[in-house]
Automatic annotation (TrEMBL):
Renumbered residue ranges of the record's region Disordered: 1-22
Domain of life of the source: Eukaryota
Taxonomic lineage: Eukaryota, Viridiplantae, Streptophyta, Embryophyta, Tracheophyta
PANTHER family cross-referenced by the UniProt entry: F-BOX/TPR REPEAT PROTEIN POF3, S-PHASE KINASE-ASSOCIATED PROTEIN 2, ISOFORM A
Annotated gene: LOC111453032
COI1 F-box domain span: 24-62
One matching Pfam family: Transp_inhibit
Name of the protein in question: Transport inhibitor response 1-like protein Os04g0395600 isoform X2
Residue span(s) of domain Transport inhibitor response: 81-127
């Protein structure tokens, strides 16, 4: 317990504590609560009574902030004085599809300045869709002497110079995970900035970088780490050195990268694959036979990310070789391809469902699907918590029957009672949304694209999904009636995003007036109140309207 914490004194204080609901001394209660790791459980604990609120406050070391504008850093440091780990999300998810303009916001620097003043022992920072500059990374490396872990996913604004600053100044680094970021990739020389004395590094992922790196620098880290990413040609001696390094990696659990893989390189990995639980090949253009050869050496695999170049043949190998698989993500190698030349279909998805009964998380990009296939898949794997099916051609029906895909997603929500996240696509009518409202009682996040018939669809979801926290919609026919159907729900949700829908400025103003504690932001190119709002972002915040909104964002 912090030495600055005011402790209870005499018996009078003890009686007051008992009346407040706690019969335990502060020190005991804080130690017990320190064993509670779930964010939801800790939040529930803090609501029991004032004593439990204070104990939870002082014992918490990690904070998760799902929207960087829902709270200010000043409020965070007042609420939790002993934080050592922070997870922070910024832009709406649809920024991944270029639906959020550049310079929208979500800059990390103001957070780091505040944290430096109150959290000198900060050890871990996990960022998603935040803007991070090289100056911020330099500040981070110099301000927190015990810093250990940095993860950045879908962030922008920095270059390999910033990574060099982290490598130079973070002497106790255990993890540097750089995934799917918009980076100015100047060179691979930043790897040489890690000190020769660094022995703590356990996770290094820079698979999204393409610059050539020094094999010597990589080998130095690889000996300790057992993973890396490179694309340069190897001499025969370097190949054997690499092979020897991987042979020593008997406890390797995660492997990613392989941007320019060949059969020769894949064979190097075989000795280190027996204990792999996570294989990220989302940057590797592999064919089905190559994937099959690798997976035959990965009996313990739980998570697999691949490109659709593996085709159905590769996914059939997944079903045959990975009985413990829990998560599958299949990304498109070319998301803008008009015609299906290579890719995956319902056949590959079915094969995985037959061979992987523990599967509960899927992200699946494809060009064709059928209602019957989806119904069979969820019967084989009824424990889905995350089901994200992305049929890349908008308004694509069941390609065999030419019927809408309503029954497919109806089967998902009827069968998968644990479902928490759902992404829907294809030709869908309001029937899909009626199914969701009726059956998806544990749904927390719903993503909608090019779907629905009328406002009634969204109204069904808002009235029928009591646990809904995040709703994101694009290119759908929902208007003001749909928007305003959530008046009583938005304060209990994290956020709502609607773009290219039928919502008008007048509808947005009504929402802002009816629920003034919400931040209602509109991205709009002028026009009257009856003009459709280009994009609407609605979220709850205890910090009020944000102070860094750019000129193209109107806060109502």
């Amino acid at each position: 317990m912090s030495s600055k914490r005011k402790k209870k004194g005499g018996s009078g204080d003890s009686d007051e504590s008992t009346r407040g609901g706690s019969i335990f001394p502060d020190e005991v209660l804080e130690r017990v609560l320190g064993l509670v790791k779930s964010r939801k459980d800790r939040s529930s604990v803090s609501l029991v009574c004032k004593d439990w609120f204070n104990a939870e406050r002082w014992s918490r070391t990690h904070v998760f902030i799902g929207n960087c504008y829902s709270v200010s850093p000043e409020i965070v440091i007042r609420r939790f004085p002993n934080i050592r780990s922070v997870s922070l999300k910024g832009k709406p998810r649809f920024s991944d599809f270029n639906l959020v303009p550049p310079n929208w916001g979500a800059d990390i620097h103001s957070w780091l300045v505040v944290f430096a003043s109150k959290y000198p022992n900060l050890e871990e920072l996990r960022l998603k869709r935040m803007t991070v500059t090289d100056e911020s990374l330099e500040f981070l490396g110099r301000s927190f002497p015990n810093f250990k872990a940095l993860s950045m996913m879908s962030c922008d604004g920095f270059s390999t110079d910033g990574l060099a600053a982290i490598a130079t100044h973070c002497k106790n680094l255990t993890e540097l995970d750089i995934l799917e970021n918009d980076i100015n990739d100047k060179s691979g020389n930043w790897l040489s900035c890690f000190p020769d004395t660094l022995k703590s590094l356990q996770v290094l992922n820079f698979a999204s970088l393409n610059s050539d790196v020094s094999f010597e620098s990589l080998e130095k880290l690889l000996t300790e780490l057992g993973t890396g990413s490179f694309s340069q040609e190897l001499t025969l001696r370097q190949y054997y050195d690499l092979e020897d390094a991987f042979k020593s990696c008997n406890n390797l659990h995660t492997l990613s990268g392989l941007l320019e893989s060949t059969v020769l390189y894949l064979q190097v990995l075989f000795p280190a694959s027996a204990n792999l639980t996570f294989l990220n090949l989302s940057y590797a253009i592999l064919h089905g036979g190559e994937l099959a050869g690798l997976l035959s050496h990965c009996p313990a695999l739980r998570r697999l990310w691949v490109l659709d170049t593996v085709e159905d043949k590769g996914l059939k190998a997944v079903g045959l070789s990975c009985p413990l698989l829990e998560e599958l993500r299949v990304f498109p190698a070319d998301p803008y391809a008009d015609n299906l030349v290579h890719g995956v279909t319902e056949s590959g998805f079915l094969a995985v469902s037959y061979g992987c009964p523990k599967l509960h998380y899927v992200l699946y990009f494809c060009h064709q699907m059928t209602n019957e296939a989806v119904a069979t898949i969820v019967q084989n794997c009824p424990d889905f918590t995350h089901f994200r099916l992305c049929i890349m051609n908008p308004h694509q029906p069941d390609y065999l029957t030419k019927q809408p895909m309503d029954e497919a997603f109806g089967a998902v929500v009827k069968t998968c009672s644990k479902l928490r996240r759902l992404a829907i696509s294809g030709l869908l009518t309001d029937i899909t949304f009626e199914y969701i409202g009726k059956y998806a009682k544990n749904l927390e996040t719903l993503s909608v694209a090019f779907a629905g018939s009328s406002d009634w669809g969204m109204q069904c979801v808002m009235s029928g999904c009591p646990k809904l926290r995040k709703l994101e919609i694009r290119d759908s026919p929902f208007g003001n009636a749909a928007l305003l159907s959530g008046l009583e729900r938005y304060e209990s949700m994290r956020s709502l995003w609607m773009s290219a829908c039928k919502v008008t400025m007048n509808g947005c103003r009504i929402l802002a007036k009816q629920v003034p504690r919400l931040n209602v932001e509109v991205i709009k190119d002028g026009g009257s109140d009856e003009c459709e709002a280009e994009s609407v972002y609605v979220y709850r915040s205890v910090a009020g309207p944000r102070r860094d909104a750019p000129s193209f964002v109107l806060t109502l």
